[in-house]
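Checked the freezer inventory, then went back to the computational side. Two predictions to log before the end of the day. The first one is the construct we discussed on Monday; recording sequence and tokens without edits.
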Amino acid sequence: MLFYRAAVDLSRSTLNYVAGLIRRRRKQIGSTWRLLNPGRQALLVLVHLRKGETFAEAGAGFEVSTATAWRYVEETVALLSARSPKLAAALKKAKKDGLTHLILDGTLIHTDRVKADRPYFSGKHRVHGMGRPGEVGG
């Protein structure tokens, strides 16, 4: 396997925010040692989420096993998820903001758009499509 340096288009504040969540969690559970420090773990997770790299690719890039990359991603996604608004709060805010539709599950519905139609192109899935909207009741 060959290795190369790459960039991810996220801000340093995003990295610091995620690393802070990891750092606080490690302190809370008394974790004294991990293969990657919180900053490197945060970067691995952000690379996986932003660029869609597999656990094997992300692990190789950060010199950890595929299983370790998976555990780091699972742990960090759980930390981020715990900080996200719950469904009832999100629906209440959407209604207050006058929104009529929300994407709740992130499912991509494939469309046959032309390549020039960029707003409907999913970089993650590398296909054209739109998210399935969920109606806000009320």
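The second is the one RB wanted added to the comparison set:
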Amino acid sequence: MKKPESNRSILLGAAFLMATSAVGPGFLTQTTTFTQTLAASFGFVILISIIIDIGVQMNIWRIITVSGKRAQEIANEVLPGLGIFLAALVVLGGLAFNIGNIGGAGLGTNVLFGVSPEMGALFSGLIAIGIFLVREAARIMDRFIQVLGFLMIGLTVFVMFQSQPPVGEAIIRSFIPETLDFLAIVTLVGGTVGGYITFAGGHRLLDAGLSGMKNIPEVNKSAVSAIGLASIIRIFLFLATLGVVAQGLDINPENPPASVFQLAAGNIGYKIFGVVMWSAAISSVIGAAYTSVSFIKTFSPVLAKYEKFLIVGFITVSTAIFTSIGQPVTLLILAGALNGLILPISLGVILLAAHNKKIVGEYNHPKWLTGFGILIVVVMAYLGGYTMINQLPELFS
């Protein structure tokens, strides 16, 4: 049996893994872009997304922990072949996210060195591959990213105070919005708990040997903490951007989050943001590639044997697609939206497993969590279908 201190470390690690997977370049770009278009009413979108995120996270993490199985293994027990289908969806969403992350790295190098986002993305893709192949460098990079993560939080809080946002209006519009945007809701939920992201922490718990009903209370706390951490950063960034928007300043559409930091904190803030953006993007590239490949490597010993080459190939394809297409801001929003479309399917599979005694044994899933989960599946399926038909095409028009 693991010592309590060991369990706390594992649970905290899972929470941070999920939160840092969510808080990447797409997260920053989506938040600033939608704040610019929705103003204070974006607070309502954040509130709704937080509620949905908690429901998704608690359902998925509990079932993974109780069953002691990864998501694709659970899906295959629900229905033979369903795990392969789920893995394909997650890999597709992970690829979309990785293309967006590569684009974020390109935006970061554009801020720092003035090179084109496409050229910066190509350089960053090569760096990401090198970081993965050299394990010691990856370990050093992980430490470096943690430091920059705290720097990003600190800088965002600083920018929030500098921009002097209308906090009172933000609070009111968080409950009584003037404008509703389904694409914003789908994108935020997809960018926080969609696709591979919500499974990253749950799988981390299994890798650390933490499973079983006895750990449910701690898993609940870890799941909520992960959403809380990501949400706090989202709120700070929303308020910082809202302050800039309220002043009537023009935000650069080619790099919205960097523009916000520059307008509020000057050129130093702009350059520091470039470092944080690039570092967060590289971290997300590696995390998305690794987690996506983990969904397919269990299907064959051959895939497991060549896992490293699959990850390198995943990063290479992501980089090639971005450098061919460009449009980093559009891709970062699209990535979140695609993962929002995957969410109803992945959560639906987990809810079916929650009441299958062959998978969960004697565990009884709370009725309120099941009902909440079903509501989320229905709402996200509707919103996802609506945005696919009516709003996503406008991104490329």
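For RB: The two ends are 57 Å apart (CA to CA). The chain has 18 helices and no strands. Let me know if you want it refolded.
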